[in-house]
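Example 9 (inverse folding). The structure is encoded as follows.
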């Protein structure tokens, strides 16, 4: 099926993190219609097995394909690490697919400024070694300093931020010896732009802090433009789906997205799409 400019952009994450990417895309491309999916029934993805994350990402991709998306953004580093290659192979002929890793790796290494780059992200992303491999493929002289920071995404998802305790958690991660001597830090989790200010405050301008949001939005624009798929008529018909609904989650999404969002629940998603290994109970 040929793609058309009027089709929506699909975007997904385990929860609210991907909203930071969605926001950057709507800022750059305000005419585009957006369909967001937050897999709140299964978050966090960061401590799940790659099979489980791949399973959830495949189901969500099919959901977004049913919604006729012309382009799908995997707005989650963990899912981008373990599922992008396969999803791209399976659906790349039908839909444009963007992950959140390649645009920032290319953007940061392009500057050729940094020789010591820190990466913080979930256990899944850091364990996959994907940033290190991609960065060193581009420039083998760059030293990559990886640190898994598993408490950060659940902390942010719970709306726990900009307070004394969240600051202590952030600071104690950033003070780890693994991140000594870095010149730049990549926030390799789409939740982390929400605490970027705290991270920048910790470094007091001594380290350049990068998040993927604007790099990804630029990549989406580039791909759509190349294929003449940019929408010319403004659409306000965005949809935000979750696999499990709570009031607290809705409040947090309003705070982070900075405008009113009507969340729609995907009925029975959590039961129907549960991973066969029942990861939640085994954790
Ligand atoms: N926002 C996601 C990421 O970029 C994952 C957070 C989580 O669910 O653990 O990796």
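The amino acid assigned to each position is listed next.
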């Amino acid at each position: 099926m040929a793609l058309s400019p009027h089709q929506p952009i699909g975007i997904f994450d385990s929860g609210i993190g991907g909203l930071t990417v969605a926001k950057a895309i709507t800022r750059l491309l305000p005419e585009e219609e957006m369909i967001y999916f937050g897999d709140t029934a299964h978050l966090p993805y960061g401590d799940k097995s790659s099979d489980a994350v791949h399973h959830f990402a495949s189901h969500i991709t099919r959901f977004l394909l049913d919604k006729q998306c012309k382009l799908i953004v995997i707005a989650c580093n963990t899912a981008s690490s373990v599922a992008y290659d396969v999803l791209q192979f399976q659906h790349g002929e039908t839909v444009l697919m963007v992950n959140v890793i390649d645009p920032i790796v290319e953007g940061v290494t392009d500057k050729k400024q940094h020789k010591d780059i820190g990466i913080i992200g979930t256990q899944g992303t850091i364990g996959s070694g994907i940033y290190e491999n991609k960065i060193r493929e581009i420039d083998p002289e760059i030293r990559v300093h990886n640190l898994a920071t598993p408490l950060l995404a659940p902390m942010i998802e719970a709306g726990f931020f900009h307070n004394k305790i969240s600051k202590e958690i952030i600071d104690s991660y950033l003070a780890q010896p693994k991140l000594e001597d870095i010149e730049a830090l990549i926030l390799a989790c789409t939740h982390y732009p929400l605490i970027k200010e705290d991270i920048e405050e910790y470094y007091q301008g001594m380290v350049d802090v990068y998040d993927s949001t604007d790099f990804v939005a630029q990549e989406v624009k580039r791909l759509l433009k190349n294929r003449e798929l940019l929408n010319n008529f403004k659409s306000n018909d965005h949809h935000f789906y979750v696999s499990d609904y709570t009031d607290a989650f809705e409040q947090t999404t309003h705070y982070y997205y900075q405008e009113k969002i009507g969340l729609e629940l995907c009925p029975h998603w959590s039961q129907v799409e549960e991973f066969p290994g029942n990861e939640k109970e085994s954790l």
